[in-house]
Amino acid sequence: MNTTTLQTGAPALAAPQRTSGTRAMVAGAAVLAAALLLPLLVRNDYWLHSVIMVLYFAYLASAWNLVCGYVGQVSFGHSVFSGVGGYISVTLLTHAGMSPWLGMLVGALAAAALAVAIGYPTMRLKGPYFALTTIAVAEIIRIWFENTDVVFGIAIKGSQGLTVPLVGTSWAAMQFESKVPYYYIMLAMLLLVMGLTAWMERSRLGVCLKAIRGDRDAAESLGINPTRYYLAAFALSAFMTALGGTFYAQFIRFINPERNMGVELSIDMALMSIIGGQGTVLGPVIGAFFLTPVSEVLRSELGGQLVGLHLVIYGLVLILAVLYLPKGLLAPLSRWARRLLGGAPR
To answer: Which of 83, 126, 128, 163 is the most buried (most CB within 10 A)?
Structure first.
């Protein structure tokens, strides 16, 4: 192949890629427009509530993905950050009259500090040792919450949980008569965490985390400080997870240790990210849109008759996904989308 062919071939290859990229941007804009218009089309409260829950789990899975998807460690204790954020915002609203928006930030900062305290001694653990440690720490904190009625004179009511007081419908109180505002808040939070993931993908933080995931010793030899980058990502992930915990408490208007800090919630975050495609922007979202309806159907159809069977089926779905789709659902869906949009196969 001569030089002339190479010079004329490069633009010929670049043109379809530009066309495919333009079509992908148009498709993304269409999906966003559809998401913004959805409440105008869905008038049924049950269906809108279900969509909000799917977005909520997509948000939590994306927050989990910020550290676990890039470092390659599986945390089964992330629910504790959601619980801490929710409890702090609810108690600040109840006892100090603080707006949930400010309480959300206070709770998220507390969760980030807790993540640093947990992450520093456990960051050198690998594989199942790290996963088991996160379960143990989260369970210790959950059980402590369940058996504690008062902390520093503030009632948290143990396993009974806290009810969010009604202070009037307003944006400042994050309380509404309709579910539509909750939908838009959750959608904005999901877009925020997806934007954060996209930024991380191209930032020094994301590159260093991937290097640490590939070979920790080699990364250290290149001057990368694993402790600093790992703790930064862990704190960021905990911060975003705690924001989700506050939203959930305000949306459901109730919080308790079992629902907001249980291991099952952590497993949901991990499975959605892994099955969708961890370490990517869209993977956790795809995983949530696939698994949340499956989970709800299994719970409603099997949870009351054969307790725990829905978790077994849930686990089988994970095993099949790991065996046959190691890169998650995102990989085959991306190939299909590229063919549909006329892009070159990779």
So the answer is: 83
Give me the pLDDT at residue 175, please: 92
Phi, psi of 255 (to 5 degrees): -145, 140
Question: Residue 66: CB partners within 8 Å, gap ≥ 6?
Answer: 193, 196, 197, 200, 233, 236, 237, 240
The angle subtended at Cα 37 by Cα 34 and Cα 39, nearest 5°, is 120
d(C-alpha 187, C-alpha 280), whole Å: 18
pTM score? 0.87
Query: Over the chain, what is the mean pLDDT?
Result: 85
pLDDT digits (tens, 9 = 90+) for 138-169: 899 999 999 988 888 888 888 888 999 888 88
Q: What's the half-sphere exposure (Cβ side, CA atoms, 13 Å) at 4? A: 0
3-state secondary structure the chain: CCHHHHHHHHHHHHHHHHHHHHHHHHHHHHHHHHHHHHHHHCCCHHHHHHHHHHHHHHHHHHHHHHHHHHHCCCCCCCHHHHHHHHHHHHHHHHHHCCCHHHHHHHHHHHHHHHHHHHHHHHCCCCHHHHHHHHHHHHHHHHHHHHCCCEECCEECCHHHCEECCCCCCECCCCECCCCHHHHHHHHHHHHHHHHHHHHHHHCHHHHHHHHHHHCHHHHHHCCCCHHHHHHHHHHHHHHHHHHHHHHHHHHHCEECHHHHHCHHHHHHHHHHHHHHCCCCCCHHHHHHHHHHHHHHHHHHHHHCCCCCHHHHHHHHHHHHHHHHCCCCCHHHHHHHHHHHHCCCCC
CA 260 – CA 112 distance, rounded (Å):
17
pLDDT digits (tens, 9 = 90+) for 77-128: 899 999 999 999 999 999 999 999 999 999 999 999 999 999 888 877 777 7
User: Which residues share a beta bridge with 163?
Assistant: 254
